[in-house]
What we know:
Blueprint: H1 6-13, H2 16-24, H3 33-40, H4 44-56, E1 61-68, E2 71-77, E3 89-90, E4 93-94, H5 99-104, H6 106-129, H7 148-164
Antiparallel strand pairs: 1-2, 3-4
Helix pairs in contact: 1-6, 3-4
Amino acid sequence: xxxxxxxxxxxxxxxxxxxxxxxxTKAEExxxxxxxxxxxxxxxxxxxxxxxxxMDADLLKIVKQEKxxxxxxxxxxxxxxxxxxxxxADDDNVLNFxxxxxxxHAEQTLQLVMLxxxxxxxxxxxxxxxxxxxxxxxxxxxxxxxxxxxEKKVMTDLFKVLNNxxxxxxxxxxxxxxxxxxxxxxx
Length: 187
């Protein structure tokens, strides 16, 4: 569980160093601080404070430690933040966090939403700054008037589409596949 407040977490999410470190440490085997410094061009003397803050916020994990003389070298990874999500959806069951559960886990819920928004904004920035015509990031927004039953049906239908997307891929043998993240938010 994160040792930081939502406000502290929000401050981390707007720190450019945090974004660079998250991107650099997606390797399963992790990176040492020296490797992170080289990949991000963040000087070592500015890195350790941010690494410690990210560890406190559960944004990094130490995936390996090596003894070098009398020192321990840590390898940091953020890969665990990018695990695939399976959505629960059938006619009677939509993934739904109860109000009580959200209240009990408010800090973690808000931090997860901020992390996902940070990832989306970073990807959108890369798409905007890209020299290619490839559109890797999309945002769609809408407002509709629905009954509670209609709202539940829309969410169930969307979860079904997400769960079946890989099996319904029109070109399942393509060598040009990429990891796609989709985030649904309703309020």
